Task: inverse folding
């Protein structure tokens, strides 16, 4: 009940925010009307230090959507200014994710590292203007001198070096004459500013590391807060849309583009991040899960990286629906994972064929069915969408049913198979249970029944309360199915007291003895279906092979999410 309540509250919150959903659009329209800009140019600027997650999808689709709405352009640009954590693998995965979501950056793929020369020139300009200086303080000393929210900072003893000395020292930094951390270049702004970001921030540091794009051409690298506004200005970005944690950085952003003398500089606007309850998005957590072998990579279907959601079977349409439902807000809030699950169900329910798959099988022998006979039954692919047509499914004397669909001693209101009860085999016949067999341990091994030939197709004037699905033994394909739950324990919370993840030991269940219709045995990697009563499933893109698909459960059929009318 608590989970459902939180989801309903999220839905209500979404509806209330409809009024403020377009606050960014209102600002853009104001800028266009006042002639501040004559075009709209947005960008998505990820750091290539990990895989993108569902929160990034919101930023991608927001920036792309704004460009589309105002007839503008959308760039993909990598903020690759920190070679310590960046990899080509991450660059490639991000490009794939952005394309998959449908955000078309056309030929506008850029790298911050391509602007290193221009950034260096901007730093030299600041030195010549007396707005930057080379500082010899260590990182710890700089932190100490900076002060805090109640104490103003103290000026560095190196703050008043001459322009000539600063130019020479900065050139020597570039030439590799100093060790990492020995010297930095700092902006000269205001050590008494109430905004700590303006207290002479570091804008360049020495780092003798090879870069994924520029190799060993540089041994000094710009800091993010210095590089980012320059990148936006070079690309003629009009509106730099970013998340709320950069709100306090906006004065520095504006200072950089102003002091570096860019014409018609971009404007930064902040919006709230997308927080999803009880999921792991932190890169250091995911990195540890990968390194410890708890997940099989950044795209493990238990994660909410975009690559993981794609591998699990989520669609771009479902992600776009989710982002639209969440909306754009200035206030941080959390959204229940059930809303994301609702969106994939809504997207797939009319698109996908409803096939039969038995995940925990027990054999049902229909004793009065002709020995050796196989017949083909026509079954609709999707009762809610007749346009998907129908298929022919083989039926015979022996079929697999779900183990939970038979009980020796059923409770009240159990309408499936038990001794003496008649059920409908979906699209086939009415069958009455006549008995069962057990092994030495008391486990049911075979169920017996008789069928009524007059009920072919599962239709009869005689009413039965139970309908169960099945797969014919002689033609069934054996496959592996993987059932996923949240990787963290939802009841105990995401983190333990020591800051480690509180992992759910049942986050992955592998079922190797599943039987599916013959058609499903030929499923291609990435192809998805609804398995009757078991949920939506997708053939895994990694482990499926021709004629041997491995199915991931995308989502179950039951939902706790309700749309508020």
Result:
């Amino acid at each position: 009940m608590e989970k459902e309540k939180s989801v309903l509250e999220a839905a209500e919150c979404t509806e209330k925010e409809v009024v403020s959903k377009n606050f960014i659009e209102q600002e853009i329209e104001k800028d266009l009307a006042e002639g501040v800009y004559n075009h709209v140019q947005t960008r998505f600027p990820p750091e290539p230090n990990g895989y993108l997650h569902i929160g990034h999808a919101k930023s991608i689709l927001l920036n792309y959507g704004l460009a589309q709405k105002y007839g503008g352009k959308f760039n993909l640009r990598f903020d690759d200014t920190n070679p310590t954590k960046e990899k080509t693998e991450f660059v490639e995965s991000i490009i794939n994710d952005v394309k998959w979501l449908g955000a078309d950056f056309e030929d506008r793929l850029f790298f911050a590292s391509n602007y290193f020369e221009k950034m260096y020139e901007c730093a030299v300009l600041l030195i010549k203007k007396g707005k930057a200086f080379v500082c010899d303080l260590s990182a710890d000393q700089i932190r100490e001198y900076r002060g805090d929210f109640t104490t103003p900072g103290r000026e560095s003893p190196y703050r008043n070096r001459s322009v000539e000395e600063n130019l020479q020292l900065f050139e020597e930094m570039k030439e590799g004459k100093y060790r990492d951390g020995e010297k930095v270049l700092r902006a000269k702004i205001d050590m008494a500013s109430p905004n700590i970001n303006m207290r002479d921030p570091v804008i360049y540091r020495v780092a003798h590391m090879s870069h994924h794009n520029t190799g060993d051409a540089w041994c000094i690298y710009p800091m993010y807060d210095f590089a980012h506004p320059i990148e936006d200005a070079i690309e003629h970005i009009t509106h730099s849309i970013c998340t709320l944690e950069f709100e306090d950085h906006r004065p520095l952003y504006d200072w950089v583009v102003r002091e570096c003398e860019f014409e018609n500089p971009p404007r930064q606007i902040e919006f709230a991040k997308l927080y999803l309850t009880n999921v792991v998005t932190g890169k250091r957590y995911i990195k540890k899960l990968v390194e410890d072998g708890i997940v099989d990579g950044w795209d493990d279907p238990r994660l909410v990286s975009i690559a993981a959601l794609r591998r699990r079977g989520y669609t771009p349409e479902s992600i776009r629906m989710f982002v639209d439902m969440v909306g754009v807000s200035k206030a941080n809030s959390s959204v229940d994972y059930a809303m994301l699950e609702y969106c994939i169900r809504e997207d797939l329910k009319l698109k996908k064929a409803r096939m039969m798959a038995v995940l925990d099988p027990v054999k049902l022998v229909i004793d009065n069915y002709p020995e050796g006979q196989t017949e083909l039954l026509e079954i609709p692919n999707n009762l809610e969408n007749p346009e998907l047509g129908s298929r022919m499914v083989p039926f015979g004397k022996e079929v697999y049913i779900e183990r939970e669909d038979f009980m020796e001693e059923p409770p009240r209101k159990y309408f499936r198979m038990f001794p003496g009860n008649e059920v409908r085999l979906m699209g086939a016949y009415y069958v009455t249970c006549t008995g069962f067999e057990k092994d030495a341990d008391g486990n049911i091994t075979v169920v017996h029944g008789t069928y009524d030939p007059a009920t072919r197709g599962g239709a009869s004037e005689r009413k039965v309360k139970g309908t169960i699905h099945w797969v014919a033994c002689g033609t069934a394909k054996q496959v592996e199915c993987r059932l996923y739950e949240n990787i963290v324990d939802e009841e105990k919370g995401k983190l333990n007291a020591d800051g480690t993840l509180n992992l759910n030991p049942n986050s992955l269940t592998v079922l190797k003895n599943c039987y599916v219709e013959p058609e499903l045995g030929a499923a291609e990697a990435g192809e998805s279906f609804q398995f009757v009563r078991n949920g939506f499933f997708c053939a895994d893109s990694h482990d499926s092979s021709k004629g041997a698909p491995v199915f991931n459960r995308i989502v179950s059929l039951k939902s706790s999410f309700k749309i508020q009318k």
Notes: The radius of gyration is 30 Å.
